[in-house]
Write a structure and sequence with these properties.
Length: 475
């Protein structure tokens, strides 16, 4: 006999657990199924984001940044710190504690909102009585049923063909977060978010880091001016980034990993490293869902096909997050999860893909929302651009971090903000003002006329807005 629910959510990552909680708040009887396990075999909801993605990587970035500041920047503040060392095991343990706190927090929210949690893998059995039967395979096998199913099973790291992850020498994002000692030489394939963040962590701790990128341009999705500024900063830090490479044979052995490749000039090269992190993207995770049992449609990438409202080809079945089209971002999944729960309740869920922010948590941080200057040019959109360097910002000088700038793009006729791009200190926080402004169709003049605290990094945003109309207050 199956257990009856109104809504079953398969997956407890950012899209899934948020969808489950919102559906419960709207009065539905909700079950959430998630199979992530902690080191003791217990439940660890939160998906890739909480367990091997956003949360643990930020913990390591913070630890490594403290270490670098103590070694390289404390002296300029008059602070003497000698013989500073890193205890990698303790750093990893702190990261694990942060992860567990987030896992436990989600379980608490389930309990608070009366969401029934099932620890195991969820898969379709069949369509039944106007709904669907879902099997939970875990420590104890369960059968659940509901009329509404939300799939939020996330994504998996993409491996290089013929080079599987062993998480010892060839690492995915998972293994990259569990390295037990600072490697002397570290290689990364892919200069995207994961590559740059993990490369930054281990470079700060003393590793010699080389990043191999197949594309001829650095951070092609980022505004070109911002990407160039970021590249200069990374080069100065000693992060070696080779663009336009073609990776060949990769060999693993007792001494590490050997990568054969050709550089942008077509010259044969080789790189020997202790560890290799492969970060060439992610693939939608539909493993074990048994989609064929109900005829759920997948596309050529293996993603679940959905419409603009996250509806699949099956009545009452929805999908959100990394397992569907669109950017693979935790906050995008969260927005879709809330929207789907509200649509099931007959409300009008809201997701605006044009105002989803992107962030790379390196130092300097890189954040953006909206269109880039190259996109506007390609689309033939008439625009105005304004920028302001953190070098001229008083708070940035006081922080001792004046790298980068804020850049704003606005419609040439209406002055509506079309994009904001930031490279520099606390860009991840500063971008939120731009997201709010764009959501409300603000003009650059609106930002320019808003009072910003002084001294603050946000004044650079105001100055960039003023610069759109060739004005400045130059704080």
């Amino acid at each position: 006999m199956s257990k009856q629910f109104d809504v079953i959510v398969i997956g407890g990552g950012p899209g899934g657990y948020i969808a489950a909680i919102r559906a419960a708040q709207l009065g539905f009887n909700v079950a959430c199924i998630d199979e992530w396990k902690n080191e003791k075999g217990g439940p660890a909801p939160g998906g890739t984001c909480t367990n091997v993605g956003c949360i643990p990587s930020k913990a390591l970035l913070q630890s490594s940044e403290h270490f670098e500041h103590a070694n390289k920047h404390f002296a300029e503040h008059g602070i003497t710190a000698s013989d500073v060392k890193i205890d990698v095991a303790k750093m990893i343990a702190r990261k694990d504690t942060v992860v567990k706190q987030n896992n436990d927090g989600i379980l608490y929210l389930f309990k608070k909102n009366k969401v029934s949690f099932f620890h195991g893998r969820g898969s379709f059995v069949k369509a039944a009585e106007g709904g669907y039967e879902i099997k939970v395979t875990g420590a104890a096998e369960e059968t659940l049923s509901a009329k509404q199913i939300i799939i939020a099973t996330g994504s998996n790291a993409r491996a290089l063909p013929g080079v599987p992850f062993d998480e010892e020498s060839v690492l995915s994002n998972d293994g990259a977060l569990r390295v037990g000692a600072v490697p002397k030489k570290l290689g990364l394939i892919g200069s995207g978010v994961i590559g740059l963040e993990m490369g930054s962590v281990w470079r700060r701790l003393g590793a010699e880091v080389t990043i191999l990128e197949g594309l001829p341009t650095f951070l092609g999705a980022v505004d070109e001016q911002i990407a160039k500024e970021a590249k200069k900063a990374f080069d100065k830090q000693g992060l070696k980034i080779e663009l336009g490479v073609k990776v060949g044979e990769i060999k693993t052995g007792k001494k590490g990993v050997s990568i054969a490749y050709t550089n942008a000039k077509g010259e044969a090269q080789s790189l020997d490293v202790d560890k290799l992190i492969v970060s060439i993207g992610r693939v939608p995770n539909t493993i074990g869902l048994n989609t064929e049992a109900v005829g759920l449609q997948l596309d050529e990438r293996g993603a679940i096909v959905v419409d603009g409202d996250c509806k699949t080809n099956l009545p009452g079945v929805w999908a959100v997050g990394d397992v569907v089209r669109g950017p693979m971002l935790a906050h995008k999944a969260e927005e879709e999860g809330v929207a789907v729960a509200e649509r099931i309740a007959g409300q009008h869920g809201h997701v605006n893909f044009n105002t989803i922010p992107w962030v790379i948590y390196t130092s300097p941080e890189i954040a953006w929302v909206g269109r880039t200057e190259q996109q506007l040019k390609a689309d033939g959109v008439k625009y105005k651009a304004g920028s302001f360097p953190f070098l001229a910002n008083g708070r940035a000088r006081a922080l001792g971090d004046t790298t980068g700038m804020v850049k704003m793009l606005a419609d040439a006729e209406t002055d509506e903000i079309l994009g904001v791009h930031i490279v520099g200190p606390q860009a991840s926080e500063l971008i939120s003002e731009a997201v709010v402004a764009m959501e409300f169709k603000a003009s650059s003049e609106d930002i320019a006329r808003i009072c910003h605290a002084h001294p603050s990094l946000s004044e650079a945003t105001k100055e960039a807005a003023l610069a759109v109309d060739k004005r400045t207050l130059n704080f």
